[in-house]
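A brief tutorial aside. Many learners find it easier to grasp structure tokens once they have seen a single protein encoded end to end. The record that follows does exactly this for Guanylate kinase. Read the sequence first, then the structure, and try to relate runs of similar tokens to stretches of the chain.
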Amino acid sequence: MIEEKGILFVLSGPSGVGKGTVRKALFENNINLQYSISATTRNPRSGEIDGVDYFFKNREEFEMMIKENKLLEWAEFVGNYYGTPVDYVKETIDSGRDVFLEIEVQGAMQVRKAFPEAVLIFLIPPSLEELKNRIIGRGTETEEIVKGRLDTAKVEIEMMSAYDYVVVNDQVDKACERIEAIVQAEHYRRDRVEISYKKLLEVE
């Protein structure tokens, strides 16, 4: 029997494109994906469990993880570190489960460097005008912030060539269908099947 390893899938794209919305909808449909648990130095919120919601670390522990290259990607937001532990990802895919990571573009570039076999999916809006409407629709950003996000989005969209797939988020359900098709197709790629099959032949 062919033993198949899991795959690390990374979803990223410009701010406001709807990454979180698509990820939530995707997980309602697909139970075979394991959402990647991040490490953080922020304090647990009420009801949060270590190893389930986050891996809670103190600052010294986290900085040691950075130093020892134990993170696929990391960043600092509002005085706290956040990152993806390498060991957790490797253990999960070795068990045969796919890992799904939703991060910003810069984080995805870090993953590409640290874990080249990851499959990177770039989520884009139907148009920049639609992206602008979505950001404004949040009702939380000033005109200046909206302009800054759009300028950043233009730069990030130019980085599309660093990704394996591009999915247009025109409708959430259709975007999910496209991502699910990518997940299935990746498992049937010749190079993935070939590695597992050759190991099976060696055993026999």
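Self-check: The domain at 8-36+97-203 is CATH 3.40.50.300 (Rossmann fold). If you spotted this yourself, you are ready for the next section.
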